[in-house]
Backbone:
């Protein structure tokens, strides 16, 4: 079953399974009754099966007269109580009539002469049917949770994959490799340098240590790796400038907080621009806040395609929220000077003693 | 005369390497130009009329595919249409589409083997073309199929537009889409033409297209979209172009080779 919400929908196979299990249970009761009361097995069997299957039929099909909880396939609260008690009473009466018809006798008359026995039978039947109902109820719940678990596992691996794909864009990777292949032939030392950058970039992107913080200088180094890779590819079209004041170099920041913003600036701002443009990544202090800016002079927000941008932004936003709550912000807007383009601004609390 | 080729690739190192690789594998090919964007590719190709075009798919401005479309629409009749080779780093859907349409393509990084194979095929096809000159039609059909494959025609379907909001100074004109006779691309703008007026909206035709009902609004040229019910008649010329007479407008609109098939008798 592919969908947890559908797992407890009625279907012929599940009814058949329930019915068969009830029949086995009835047979056990018939054997026990025959042993205790010395009545012939055939008689106890007829009574036990007709009563048991009637109760099952009333209860199992009766479920659909009520609104059901998709997690169990059963009604809730007093509906469940009414179903169990009602199903048992109706089933008991019907089953007894069938048994009486077979044996040519009357249980009701026998009861009036031995009321204690009657009470014992009723209690026994109620207990048995409650037990069976509970059993099916639990099975329904278990099946639902198993399906839910499988579904959740699928969702998790899908989101992990999307995350990885967004960070390791194959297009970027293969284009970089294509450049590397060329450089190996014409300029081996430069090829080696580029490979080192690629290795550092891949290591940072694939690294699992996302929760911890690292120094801002480290973050700038990772941004520089990426920018230099893109510089080889874009040549004069990309004019990068990284500005990190010495006194802010040790400030702790979450890893890969700037990189997605830099990637967006290049991918959506500068790459689509025929003449390319400038990319300025800077850090500054504003009272008790550390302000990080990624600015490009590319095509601007109006024409930038949306999806990729939103995913990268959303990722950074979520990570900032997890680490700093509402003390950190990320804003994306149009740069407000003549050169145009886009500006992303991150503000996080400044650490007093980094 | 030796065959001539044009390279359109925005990454300088890759363009240079493609040129070097071609020089080695196909020494007889004269690379007449190497350009870094789609617009330049169209302009240079129309001026130089090369036999083969190597087009990178992702380039700033116009993509390689859009450049091919523009060329197919504007290519003169007296010269055979160039053989196309698309170059891409990673576009699995594009590659599937190329395979389906038997269009030549190269995957970056381009290996020497693959390059040799590609050159061999191009030389053979150029030879075949000399003995049996074929019209631009085959390429047009291939391109139409490529442009029609959803993964290659850019944005996903957006919400339907019912009213065009055209700003003029400090007022906004509300133009019901139904009244628009045709849309015409004008650089980064689109001209919105109704029976009585013209408006300018700040958006590209590429962005506008997914917001229009394709049943009612037909693209007839890379820069023109007409409302089908406003087309009164279509007259085909020998060149493959189709001239459309419109209800409510005196000027005629041209449907290019790529879209001429839309206007056939029932």
Residues:
């Amino acid at each position: 079953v592919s969908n947890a919400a559908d797992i407890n929908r009625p279907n012929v196979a599940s009814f058949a399974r329930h019915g068969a299990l009830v029949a086995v249970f009835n047979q056990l009761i018939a054997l026990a009754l025959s042993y205790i009361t010395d009545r012939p097995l055939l008689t106890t069997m007829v009574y036990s099966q007709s009563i048991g299957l009637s109760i099952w039929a009333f209860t199992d099909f009766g479920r659909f007269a009520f609104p059901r909880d998709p997690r169990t396939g059963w009604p809730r609260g007093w509906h469940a109580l009414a179903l169990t008690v009602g199903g048992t009473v109706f089933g008991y009466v019907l089953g007894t009539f069938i048994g009486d018809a077979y044996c040519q006798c009357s249980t009701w008359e026998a009861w009036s002469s031995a009321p204690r026995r009657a009470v014992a039978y009723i209690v026994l039947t109620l207990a048995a049917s409650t037990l069976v109902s509970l059993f099916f109820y639990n099975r329904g719940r278990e099946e639902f949770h198993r399906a839910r678990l499988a579904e959740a596992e699928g969702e998790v691996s899908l989101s992990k994959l999307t995350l990885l794909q967004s960070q390791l864009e194959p297009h970027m990777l293969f284009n970089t490799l294509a450049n590397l292949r060329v450089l190996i032939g014409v300029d081996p030392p430069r090829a080696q340098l580029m490979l080192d950058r690629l290795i550092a970039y891949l290591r940072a992107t694939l690294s699992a240590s996302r929760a911890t913080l690292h120094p801002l200088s480290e973050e700038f180094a990772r941004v520089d790796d990426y920018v230099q890779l893109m510089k080889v590819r874009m040549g004069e079209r990309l004019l990068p400038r990284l500005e990190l004041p010495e006194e802010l170099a040790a400030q702790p920041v979450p890893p890969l907080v700037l990189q997605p913003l830099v990637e967006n600036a290049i991918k959506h701002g500068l790459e689509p621009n025929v003449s390319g443009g400038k990319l300025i990544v800077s850090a500054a202090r504003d009272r008790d806040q550390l302000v990080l800016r990624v600015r490009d002079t590319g095509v601007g927000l109006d024409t930038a395609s949306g999806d990729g941008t939103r995913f990268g932004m959303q990722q950074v936003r979520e990570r900032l929220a997890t680490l700093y709550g509402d003390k950190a912000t990320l804003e994306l807007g149009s740069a407000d000077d003549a050169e145009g383009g886009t500006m992303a601004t991150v503000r996080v609390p400044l650490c007093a003693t980094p | 005369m030796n065959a001539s080729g044009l390279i359109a690739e925005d990454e300088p190192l890759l363009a240079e390497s493609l040129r070097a690789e071609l020089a080695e594998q196909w020494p007889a090919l004269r690379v007449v130009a190497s350009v870094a964007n789609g617009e330049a590719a169209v302009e240079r190709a129309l001026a130089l009329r090369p036999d083969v075009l190597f087009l990178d798919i992702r380039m700033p401005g116009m993509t390689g595919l859009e450049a091919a479309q523009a060329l197919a629409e504007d290519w003169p009749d007296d010269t055979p249409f160039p053989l196309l080779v698309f170059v891409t780093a990673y576009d699995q859907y594009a590659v599937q589409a190329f395979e389906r349409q038997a269009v030549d393509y190269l995957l970056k990084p381009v290996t020497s083997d693959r390059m040799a194979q590609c050159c061999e095929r191009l030389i053979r096809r150029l030879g075949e073309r000399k003995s049996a000159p074929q019209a631009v039609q085959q390429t047009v059909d291939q391109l139409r199929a490529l442009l029609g494959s959803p993964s290659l025609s850019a944005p996903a379907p957006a919400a339907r537009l019912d009213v065009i909001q055209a700003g003029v100074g400090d007022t906004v004109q509300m133009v019901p889409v139904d009244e628009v006779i045709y849309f015409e691309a004008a650089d980064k703008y689109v001209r919105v033409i109704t029976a009585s007026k013209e408006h300018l909206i700040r958006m590209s035709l590429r962005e506008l297209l997914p917001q229009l009902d394709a049943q009612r609004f037909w693209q007839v040229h890379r820069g023109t979209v007409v409302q089908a019910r406003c087309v009164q008649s279509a007259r085909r010329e020998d060149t493959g172009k189709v001239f459309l007479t419109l209800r409510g407008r005196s000027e005629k609109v041209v449907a290019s080779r790529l879209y001429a098939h839309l206007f056939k008798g029932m």
User: Anything to note?
Assistant: The longest strand of chain B covers residues 180-186. Helices of chain B lie at 12-25, 38-48, 64-74, 92-101, 112-131, 137-148, 205-208. Residues 112-131 of chain B form the longest helix (20 residues).
